[in-house]
Structure formats: C-alpha cells, structure tokens
Design goal:
Chain A: It is found in: Cell inner membrane. The complex is a heterotrimer of chains A (316), B (315) and C (272). Chain A has 316 residues and is an alpha/beta fold. Chain A contains 11 helices and 12 strands. Chain A has a domain at 2-83 and 165-241: Rossmann fold. In chain A, α3 (101-112) runs parallel beside α6. The structure holds adenosine-5'-diphosphate (ADP) and magnesium ion. Residues 11, 16, 34, 36-42, 52, 54, 272 of chain A line the site of adenosine-5'-diphosphate.
Chain lengths: 316, 315, 272
Amino acid sequence: MIRVEGLSAALPQGQALRDVSLSVARGERLGLVGESGSGKSMLGLALMGMVPDAAQLSGRIALDGQDMTGATEAAWQPLRARKVAMIFQEPMTALDPLVRIGETVMEPLILHLKMRRRDARARALDLLAETGLTEPEAKMRQYPHQLSGGQRQRVLIALALACDPGVLIADEPTTALDAQIALRITDLLVRLSRDRGMALIFISHDLAAVARATERLAVMYGGDLVETGATAEVLANPRHPYTQGLIAARPRPDPAMIRKRLPVIPGTVPTLGDLPRGCRFAGRCAAELPRCAGTRPAPWPTASGQAACHLLEPAP
Amino acid sequence: MTRFLIRRAAGFVLTLLAVSVVVFAVMSMLPGDPALSILGIEASPEALAAMRSQLGLDAPAPARYAAWALGALKGDFGTSYAFRVPVGGLIAERLPLTLSLALGAMAVTLVLAPGLGMAAAARHGGPGDWAVMVLSQIGIAVPAFWMSILLILLFAVRLGWLPSGGFPGWDQPLAALRALVLPVIALALVQSAVLARVTRSAALEVMRLDFVRTARATGLPRRRILWRHVLPNALIPIVTIIGMQFAAIVTGTVVIESVFSLPGLGRLLLQSIANRDLITVQALVLLFAAIVVTANFLVDLAYVAIDPRLTGRQS
Amino acid sequence: MRHRASLILGAVLVGLMAAAGLVSLAWTPWPLAEIDVLNKLAAPSAAHPLGTDGLGRDLLSRLMAGAANSLSVAAGAVLLGGGIGTGLGLLASAWGGRVEEALMRLCDLSFAFPALLFAIMLAAAFGPSLLNTGLAIAFINVPIFARVARGAANQVWVRDFVLAGRAAGRGRAAISRDHIVPNIAAPLIVQATIEIATAILAEAALSYLGLGAQPPAASWGRMLAEAQTLLWVAPMQAVWPGLCITAAVLGFGLLGDGLRDWADPRLVRRQA
Ligand SMILES: Nc1ncnc2c1ncn2[C@@H]1O[C@H](COP(=O)(O)OP(=O)(O)O)[C@@H](O)[C@H]1O
Ligand SMILES: [Mg+2]
C-alpha cells in the first residue's frame, strides 16, 4: 500500500526525518512509537503530502503503486481522503465550529464521490453509526461544540473513512481523551481496519495501546527509524537500546496509569539542531560505544525485522 | 440565544437614551442664545424674553429634555431657529442623499475588500500579499477628502467624465447617480484598505487552526477551504470592523459632502453650526449617533447568525 | 523582517516631517505671509522649489509650517487627552468596583459618538481655531486611553510584586505610580503613536472644513481647501499638502505597528 524509501525531511534547524525506509501492506496495522519530537507526525504528514512548507523532502514515496516523489499540492489533493486519510491528536479543535456534523461528513462525499445530497446524507449517517456514535441522526444536526471529545474523534474517524481510503494514519488519536474512551477508540480503529481491509498506521507513545492495536511496530527517535519488527516480538525482546529504554520507562504497576505518563528515558530529547551526527541516541544511550556519535549504524536484521545499532553488528 | 438578544436589545435602547441625554446636555451647555441669533443684537430685552419663552427655553432643563425627547420619538425635532421650518423636514429632505452615499460606499467596500484580503491571505508571504499590504497601508493613510480631490482632478478636470461636484436632484436619476460616483468611490477606497487588511489578518489567524488541517487532509481543494471554512470563521472580527466602518463612513459623509458640495445631512450640520442653529445640530448629532449605535446592534445580531456557539449552551 | 522595515520607514517619515516642522519655526525659504500677487501660482523654480500659491506665497515654506502646526496639534492633543485618559484608566483599575464600572460605561457611551462628529461639534461650539481643534481631538482621546490603560493596568495589578506591595500596606496611588505605570508604558506609547496618526487626519479634516486653522496660519487641510478652488488652473497645489498628510499619517502608523511588534515579539511569531 505504502512504500517509503530513504525519506528525509530537512527543516532549517535540522533533519526531522533521516533516511526513513518503511512499507505498509494492504490491511496491515503498523504502530509508530517514539518520544515527542521523534518525527512521527512528520512522517505521517509526509505520507499525506502535508509537511510544513519549511520542510524539504527527499527520498521516495509510493502510494498504492503510484510514485508520489516530489508530487505537487495539486497532485496530492485528490489522493487525500481517497487513498490515505489522517486523523489528529486534538479532536476538540479539529472540526470547523461553524459547520454541522452532518455537513462536515457529507462534504467529501459530495465533493469527491459526486454523491447527491440525499445519498450523501444517508451515507454520512451510516458512517457515523459505523463509528459507534450514539444517536447519529440527532448528532448530524449538531455543531462540534455540542459533542464531547470522544464523540468528536468518532466524527473525525467517520470523516476520514468517508471515501474508503486504503490507509488510515491515526496520529495519537487518543492522547487527548480519558483512559476509557481512549481504549474504545483504539478498539474501534482496529475493528474498522479489519472490517474494511484498511491499513492502519497507529502513531502513539502509549505502548499498551500499540500492543493492543497493531501487528507490526516501528520505533522512531530523532528522525531515525531505529527498530522495526512484529509488535509482540519487539515489545518482548527489544534489541535497540532506545526501544529497551522506552519499554523500561513505561510505568507498569497500574494499567490505568500507563497512558497517563509519557515514557521517561534519562536525559532530555535534544533539539533538532543538536542531534549527534551518528546514532541519534548517542549521548543518552547507556550502552554507547566510542564510534556511536560519529558513525551512523546500519540496520541489522533481527528476529522479525531490523534494528539500527552498532551493538548488533556481527563481530568481524 | 433569546437571553443574549434581550440583553443586547436592552443595551441598545439604554445607549440610545443615554446618547440623547448627552447630546441634549452638551447642546444646552454651548454658549450662544438662540433668541439672540434669531432676532439679532438690536432686539429689545422684552422681545428676547418673549422669543425665549416661545422657544420653550425658559423651562427648567429636565422639562426641556423631556419635551424634546418625546417629540423626537414622534419624529418632531422642533423648529429650526435659522430656517424657521420643522427640523424633521430638513432632515427628511436630505437623508436619502446621505444614506445613498453611505450605503453605496459600504456596498463597494464589501465588494472590494474581502476578496482582496482573502487573496492576500491565500498568497501569504508572496508578491500578491505584499502588494495588497503595501497598497492598503498607504490607503489607510490617505485622507478621504484628499482622495476625493485627486479623483476630481483625474475624472473631472483631466478626463471630464464625471462632475466635480454639485447635485442635480433626484428627478434626474442618471445625473444624480453620476454625481454620487466619485464621492462613493472616495469613501469606499479608504475603507476598503482597512477592511482588506482586517480580512487578511483574520483569515491568517484562522488558517493556523486545526480544522483547516482536517479540511486539507480531507482532500478539499484550496479555494473551497478558504471560502467555505476559513472565511466564515474569520467573519467575527470582520463584521466587528464593518460595524465600525459604517460609523466612519457616516461621519465621513460630513466631510465628503463638503468636498463635492452635496446637499446632504453633513452639509446641513455644517450650515447649522455656522448659523448657531442649535436645535438642528442637536437633532443631527442624535441621528448620527443613533445610526452608529444601530450599526453596532446589527453587528451583535450578526454574531448570533454567524456563530452557533453563541446561540445555546447545550454542550 | 517586515516589522523592522515598518519601524525604520515609519521613523524616517516621522523624522522628516518633524525636522521640516522644527526648521520652519526658525527658518523658512520665504517669509510665510509674504504675499506676492504678481508672482502667484508660479511654476517650480530655483527660487520657489514647489512654486507659489494663489497669493504668491512660497508653497514649500507653507508646507513646512503646516508640518509644525499639524504635528504639534496632533501630538499635543494626544499627549493631553492620553494623559487624562491614562489617569482615569489607572484610577478605574486601582479602585475597581463601582468606580471602574461607571468609568468604563462612560467610555462605552463615548464610542457611540463618531469621533470626527464630536470634534466638529466641539470645534464649532468653542469657535474655529487650531487650539480648539486640538482640544477637541484631546477630548476624543480620553476614553481611548482610559480603556487601554485600565486593561493593561488590570493585568499588572494581579502580578506578584504588586500583590507583595499591597500586602506590605502600600497605598494604591503609590503602587500605581511606582509599579503600574512603568509596566503599562509600552502599550500606551504604541497607542499614542497610532492615535497621533488619527489626530493628524482629524486636524486636516477639520481645517479643511474651516473649523481648524484660520488664515493666514498654514495648515495642510486648509491649503487643500484653498487649492480645491484652483483645481483647473493649478492642480499641483492640491497634490503637495495631501502628500504631506499621507506621509505623516503613514509614518506614525508604520512607527506604531513597528513599535508594537518590537514591544511584543510574541505577536510577530504568531503571525509568521
Ligand atoms: N512546522 C514545523 N516547523 C519547524 N519544526 C517542526 C515543525 N513541525 C515539526 N517540527 C520539528 O520536527 C521534529 C519532529 O516533530 P514531530 O514529527 O511533530 O514529532 P512527534 O510527532 O514524534 O512528536 C521536532 O523536532 C519538531 O520540533
Ligand atoms: Mg506528533
């Protein structure tokens, strides 16, 4: 469905993505984890052709076999919602406050699928019902401010599903919601992905949610993809010190608390301009070797994927 | 919603009332004796006293205010000291001209400015944006009466296409319209500069909001995002400014009517001031202030129409 | 970047106008009132760089004197009205409660009177003169500054060092003087700069209407009114004074914008 090769995003202050290669198969559910500022959102936006103007992209992006490398805004626009859709972290502000829920969901149906208003209305109602929104009929006539955060996130999911995209990118869809609602939204996304055979890229820094929702996991740090593999495998047997740190830092005792706290790894995430040239994790890594800061580690195969760390280098 | 409306309507009425008191009080404090200006300085003290009582000037101030305010409610603003005719008639005769000027200028502004402002916002940082910003910055600094003179220089003196001033009367509709073109444009250009800037900055504010990103992620074309989602959300500040602009245009007519020698309310105001015709001045100032207060009230109503969040608190 | 340009261009324009006005107080190319009917409406020449007006007076000299009148009236009026308004705003903020409520209601009410209309009324009431025009403009500025000062002061009153002062038993007047005023100076200076631009426009309009400067005083607005009668014979007479007004208003407007962004960089970043 999606294939990314050597994707980099250069911002004036540094590289937000460095040489990221990744692919997502049809119907596959991929988790994308990493601390704040790792470049997860930047990668998601790159797959929508929506990186900030300041970011210079290089590398290849292919969507459903179509090469989108260097595509213009005009080339991306018709693919959005139809091939890739994206939902964002903050549901409270992600809906136009002046437009009724029904109109919002109908807009892409009328515009992209050329539906007549009546058909679009019926379809929007189905979509809202599919996302588990209660009393969808009444909600169609309401404005965003009349809905709760969880309800709005369901509306946004319905909106993203409107044109039946092959991939849904969910960028921390539950971070702004309270624990119970978050769990339901996560399960909803999994169900929709299964029912529709839709690939899901689930961005999160909540390892428990990722474990629950995804089959494959990609770990990012400082714009690098540091480790990939089967979700269960990576969580049980992390090979990259950064992944190990993420897992260790996650509060275990009270499952309800997991979501509440961000993972804490010693040291602070450096700003883009201050990242080491070699392994981005050098400087914070407990197992750092002398060459780590200067030489970039190559990705080495692991049980179910790859990890980019000098420690994994086969002894000569 | 009804509570909001009732509160605003009550505020509207109270403001009008307060405005009428202030206008009356200021006018009463002004130096000058109407009886003296009517009869001239050679009049005998007896004649002056008689004239004062005929004008109702010997009553205590509250009584005079009550009489005047009640009359004004019925459209009776008293008799002009200078013209010796009902003030209401003087006003009614000139109101259409001033209203045409003001509404015409407002309409031209609304046609020109929002489009320019949105175009600039859509090209944020580009040469088009820059051009709109520079032009509007200069436009704001140009006094409307100098703009008028420049327009007269170009279109009346140089090209001879339009009259340089004067008003032929409404019984010659085409000529009347031609006489209004330059004054309307002069008023509208300056206000358009203001409104284009406000539209641009309001749109830029909105364009940073999350729902614009959602609209983009939904694959909506840029134009549609701008007009269907950005503009409506930018309307609150825009409408606020439009209300203030209408007030500015209405007062602007006072100067512009003078530039183009148009017999409207503004000219009447200046004449009445020159004539010390206080009762007419009083009525005109009240009328101008009432127009401003009404414009602000309409802006409040527009808020309710624009933003559903103001109409109910169901959430 | 753009804001830096605003600041510089604004300062240059204001500086030019102020310099022309200041110089005119001591020296003008020709005596201001020297009438030379034989040489009226003369074309620009070495002797009269911009030519002469309908009475043969040197146009450049009169424009310079106009700068002095216009700027001094505008700045004086804003200082006077702004000073009184700031005092009232500080009072409202320091006292709070009924006093504040009443003062702010009065301000609201004053905004129902279009400023120019009010100035026309006052100028007419006290007789047409440049001084009365200035007083009228000062009057208009009172509620504007009262509102700005009160809003800014209210934000300072809740800050720690002010609360500490209160706890230490210092009086409201002393706190206002020592802590509030220095902390609200920036927005007031920005507002004053912008209001001077508005005041220049108002003075020009009133003088144009004959309610401001009286002959033979030189005033840009007045010069435009005189030039309008000569449009067919001497169009340039109506261009120079208008350009001066526009340049002065533009200068103060740009300066105000630039100062605001300089004083509050947060706003710049938000717009970028
Ligand atoms: N519009 C932008 N302008 C400048 N820097 C940005 C912008 N968006 C993101 N960045 C930078 O790019 C890096 C990656 O950010 P992001 O992808 O949002 O991280 P994540 O989603 O993993 O928290 C961060 O260092 C962030 O500061
Ligand atoms: Mg993010």
